[in-house]
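Subject: Sanity check before I submit

Could someone independently write out the structure tokens for this chain? I want to compare against mine line by line before I put it in a report. The sequence has 454 residues.
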Amino acid sequence: MNIDPILLRKYNVPVPRYTSYPTVPFWKEEIDEVRWKQVFKEEFLKNNLRNGTSLYVHLPFCESLCTYCGCNKKITSNHGVEGEYIEAVTKEWNLYRQLMSEPPIVREIHLGGGTPTFFSPFNLKLLVESITKRAIIHPHREFSIEGHPNNTTKNHLRILYDLGFRRISYGVQDDNPEVQQVINRMQPLENVRRATEEAREVGFRSVNFDLIYGLPKQSLLSVEKTIQQTIQLKPDRIAFYSYAHVPWASRGQRLFDENDLPSAEEKLQLYLRGRELLTTAGYVDIGMDHFALPKDDLYEAWLNGKLHRNFMGYTTQNTSFLLGLGVSSISDAGIAYVQNKKSLHEFYESIQKNNLAVFKGYFLNDEDISFRKYILNIICRGSSRLDAADLPVLRELCFPELEKLSDDGLIEWNEKEVIVTSSGRHFIRNISSAFDLHLQRNKLGTKPLFSKAI
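---
Independent answer below. Compare away.
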């Protein structure tokens, strides 16, 4: 289906990606650790037997700085840092284990970064086994890792497979050497091909690529070539992200000459052409930048209305209890979020004192929980019922936004239900923002908080 470029221009405004609601900029800059521990204990007990527990482990080290990257990372070539970090994360896990009244049923583990494959295969095994040795592994688990094609070895893959990992995401971003030079990520296509083939040889059932459009020096021809080369390797899922230019939050992005960035119009063309090539090749547009082959679990979850979204993005595992371990990682206990300290020094200092490393968070009220449900339904299922109890707030803050979306053919709605149209599926972030009460109430703020939708 063709997308109206006029609508894309109109809705190319700063909006969240909704890996949480409320979104991180609206969290409090301090956290009541005693209250967090109590919530953690209660919600763990409530959710563990029902759905299991998801774990996200942040591994922040990278050997070189990719200047486009907005993640929390530590640049070093000293691999001696691996042991100290694993020791701290293991101790943090044990601090949380003391709050668990029963063995955790681990349903999901995701190793993110940074560059998780910066760590040696032996140390990754040590880390994962330190977490799983006193846990129960759910029979329908999903263990996944983010890998760098340049340093992911077959030994990494064999050991991860033996630990239960079946999905790996490679940060490809762009295959063009000129673009790679500017973003300081030299990554020969042969390395991407080797890493993809070896993962499949070892037995990984899902190999995913992350691609970015809107990077400096990108052109229509270069993006076309990257997409075509990607299609030849046939990853099971593709995240085709918009480059988020947020130099106020990411110092590395200040190294760019902004004249090298595609204009808004050029960036729009990159997205449209990339999407056209992917869908023509048989990938299904799941929404929110994600594409999947029809045989992939993500597509099946989307088709069957079982898709879920959390801080790890779209997932097939519908757990409502996510524990984040490591520097800057985020936990979601269903009715509360917390984030760990962002500097390694502060993280280590807290853990060494037998304290949790949390510094920021948010305890949800009844209104937050209700409106989060609407956003999750829109993002994951394309529709949402509306509760009569919320009508006063909906009429005041949300219905005027829904009316505008309806006028543009992106939704069909009444006071009981909102349904995303086929055109609206390409504007999920914008539609979700209509239910974001924190955003609606703070529209007059001048400080930039989010990247643009395209």
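---
OP: Matches mine. For the report I'm noting this point. The chain has 15 helices and 19 strands.
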